[in-house]
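Worked Example 4.2. Consider the chain below.
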Amino acid sequence: MTSLEYRQGTETAAEIFDRLFLPAMAGPWAVRVADAARLKPGDRVLDVACGTGAIAWEATRRIEPGGSVVGLDQSQEMLAVARRKMPNLDWRAGSAEALPFEDNAFDAVLCQFGVMFFEDRVQALREMRRVVRPGGRIVVAVWDGLERTPGYATLTNLVERHLGPEFGKPVRDSFALGDIDLVRSLFESAGISAIDVAARAGVARFPSLQAWIDAEVKGWVGGDFGEEAYAEFLTEAKKVLSPYERPDGTVEFDLPAVVATGSKEGKPGS
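Applying the procedure from the previous section yields the following structure tokens:
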């Protein structure tokens, strides 16, 4: 069972992602990725692996009037949520390794927390380079290493003890590109120029420990505990994760990322 096949009642994993992960993690980073892209009114923007639209929403605020945003994802569940939220945007189902767009179609191509899941990362980056105009911006964000995100390391270890190592794999895969040199080498292999790669500090904020735990188990790793077993898991999780709980009951922990920017050689319009 993959994380996107898991259901909690009538809520899909994509809906759980949008309700819990997006405001706590994806949304705040979308602001910083859009900043790195230097978006301006009139820009044509592609959001690759758009999920439920964190980047697309932020980009739309910056490119009006006269701009356009396209969101692309392989997950129909994610796209369904994105379409409900922003029905006027152009949402496409497709693969990052074979983008269904013409050469030089966009002023900026953004990808937030998606590259680590692509089957062929270099090919996906080549495609981003192909569809951005000469002089346009490519911006990619990936989570930093799990060893630099101790809150998630603790929670992931707990999930693996209760469900087995395979249920920690989605989270561990999410942090697989937390290496500046590795990300730079992927950009170089894709022929991207003017590369800048840096680790950036960040913080995740959830409204409660329950929300954080639900987000991981029900919206990310999947796995059906059963009511009694999940109650037991929650009791232990709340104990080991209590150092991240603030006096008001909210949760806050370090969540750094690696942000890479680059371009395609040539002059704008060439």
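The longest helix spans residues 13-37. The two ends are 47 Å apart (CA to CA). Compare this with Example 4.1 before moving on.
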